[in-house]
Design a protein that fits this description.
The chain is 44% helix and 14% strand. It is of the alpha/beta class. Helix 12 links the parallel strand 9 and strand 10. Helix 11 crosses helix 12. It starts with a strand and ends with a strand.
Length: 388
């Protein structure tokens, strides 16, 4: 049974096998070719016309592939000698628990990584792919967050609700967990990039947030297949993916060193907009934020409007909101306006507000849910979902 947060659970859908593409199979095999970088792997995929060429070609043939040369050709020949079925079985073993192989030529591959040749050409995903119209806000910070940083995330997510935004983080303790948790509470999509197989949610104490993330349409991303355990080196590698996937990166609390600072510096290398939350002048957990502000490398973020206007995210839904309201009938418009006034509303409370019977309201909400306009949450609560 699949492992989730250190707990084994049974899920029929997650146990369904995913059939990888030929490109995914090639890239999986090339991962085992020591010394071959992601850029060369991408070139090989672009040049290779048939998979059988690898398994039937001679060393001299393989040496003609871009980025190989005689030494790597010898190593690749040794890998290919194990046979196509061997590598297919190896790859399939890493695709259990609903994990899917996504290569850089696939539509589901994150768009901001596609044209960065240094990014892994093969990713492993559990969940739903990123919507093409979503902006991605990566949030990073210390594992030992203060109440100040946690409270700010509550305020930020409340201010961003209703926008087509995916909140991205690393599912660690502290700031990461709070970013995922509050994004989901306010109806935003949240994704996690992890340093182990995407079928796991680590640490185990975050299993509840990980489960909610999947149930509410998010995804776990990793450059490692299912069954891979985290290693120290994998975390720094994970950080660069977080930075590259984002449209903007927010550093909430951090000292001058650590994983959050690595991600922030990667974001600057990738020409991403970097925001930081300033803290008290003496706060140890804000020293990294203050350093980036002092050096003029980051923008100061004090409230949700700062990021919305700076990134022009305040304009994302204006046209679509008008179009959707035009398509609603009178009762649906009343429901929409009532749900927009609240983060979430219980069915009984909504029925009382609108002076409708529970059965009549349930029928209307079901139709609106099928249209993607509302989302049913746990405990018979509903929220307005037109931004999805």
């Amino acid at each position: 049974m699949p492992k989730f947060g250190g707990i084994y659970i049974q899920n029929i859908e997650q146990n369904m096998s995913h059939n990888p593409s030929e490109q995914a199979l090639i890239l999986f095999m090339l991962r085992h070719l020591q010394g071959l970088g992601p850029k060369a792997s991408r070139h090989i995929i672009h040049e290779l016309r048939e998979l059988d060429f690898l398994f039937e070609g001679k060393v001299s043939d393989l040496a003609q592939l871009p980025g190989l040369g005689p030494i790597h050709a010898e190593k690749l020949y040794a890998l290919c000698s194990k046979g196509k079925d061997f590598w297919l079985n190896q790859l399939q073993a890493g695709l259990h628990s609903g994990v899917k192989a996504v290569c850089f030529t696939d539509n589901d591959y994150p768009k901001h990584l596609r044209h960065r040749p240094e990014m892994p050409p093969l990713l492993f995903m559990r969940g739903k792919p990123l919507p093409q119209n979503h902006r991605v806000l990566a949030i990073v910070g210390t594992r030992n967050a203060t109440r100040y940083g946690l409270d700010f995330l509550e305020r930020l997510m409340h201010g961003l609700r209703g926008l087509p935004i995916t909140v991205l983080s690393g599912m660690a303790k502290g700031i990461d967990r709070k970013a995922h948790e509050t994004a989901l509470f306010y109806g935003l999509r949240s994704d996690a990039v992890v340093a182990h197989g995407p079928e796991q949610c680590q640490p185990p104490g975050n299993a509840d947030v990980g489960q909610a993330l999947i149930e509410q349409g998010g995804a776990f991303w990793s450059e490692h297949p299912a069954g891979t355990e985290a290693q120290r080196a994998y975390f720094a590698m994970r950080n660069r993916i977080i930075a590259a996937m984002a449209d903007a990166v927010l550093l909430v609390e951090s000292g001058e060193k650590g994983g959050a600072m690595i991600t922030s510096k990667r974001a600057l290398e990738y020409n991403k907009t970097l925001f930081v939350l300033p803290g008290l002048w003496y706060a140890e957990k804000s020293k990294g934020c203050h350093m980036l502000l002092r050096e003029g490398q980051a923008k100061c973020l004090l409230n949700p409007d700062d990021i919305k206007y700076s990134m022009q995210w305040d304009k994302l839904n204006q046209a679509r909101q008008s179009n959707i309201f035009d398509a609603l009938d009178e009762q649906e418009q009343l429901i929409a306006r009532a749900l927009q006034q609240k983060q979430q509303c219980h069915l009984d409370e909504l029925a009382e507000m609108l002076e409708l019977s529970v059965s009549a309201l349930s029928s209307l909400l079901t139709m609106m849910e099928l249209k993607g306009m509302v989302q049913r949450m746990a405990g018979n609560h509903y929220q307005w979902n037109w931004m999805q």
